[in-house]
Known about the structure:
Layout: H1 14-28, H2 35-43, H3 50-59, H4 69-81, H5 101-112, H6 120-128, H7 140-156, H8 169-179
Helix pairs in contact: 1-8, 2-3, 3-5, 6-8, 7-8
Amino acid sequence: MNQVIPVSLYGVDVDKCESFYSVLPGLVEDSVDDEEYSKAIFTIQSKASMQHIKVAENWSQRQPFAFPEEVTNEIEMIVRTVSYPDVALLEHLLTIDGIDTQRVSEWMHFSTNLYPIYSQKACDTLSEMGLETPYKLDDMASYGLYVSRIEGLKMYAPAKGLPEIGLPRSRMLQLGLERFE
Length: 181
């Protein structure tokens, strides 16, 4: 590749990154068959709402939440207000009992189709590629770094690097990173 590496990928092992892109289509080809995920992601048709959060909660098989109305209103306001790729407004959600960055990332993924789902294995693979990416469930800044790494991978991807399978690119990259050896 003779293209400029995005700042968010500064320090990446270029050979490992190019190897990742070369095998990515094969790593995610079965993801189009994930009916549960596809049904959940394509259920979402309108702007972010608590209904989308319920979809995310059902997909991730989490214990259903039962927040007081004022907390529900606050969550919905934040989810509707945040603008990709910013995560700063999401920090406040970590003050709610039972909420961590993994859960917030699922909410945002299903609410926007843009935010990636935060994943220990994907963070580990990024770190192995020379991009130190911590996985901290209580630290929104770590999730923000993960978001910027995924966005950098989208920008740096060669034309054939991201398969056209109808799923969000952030999901394909997350799955690919989890499966990359």
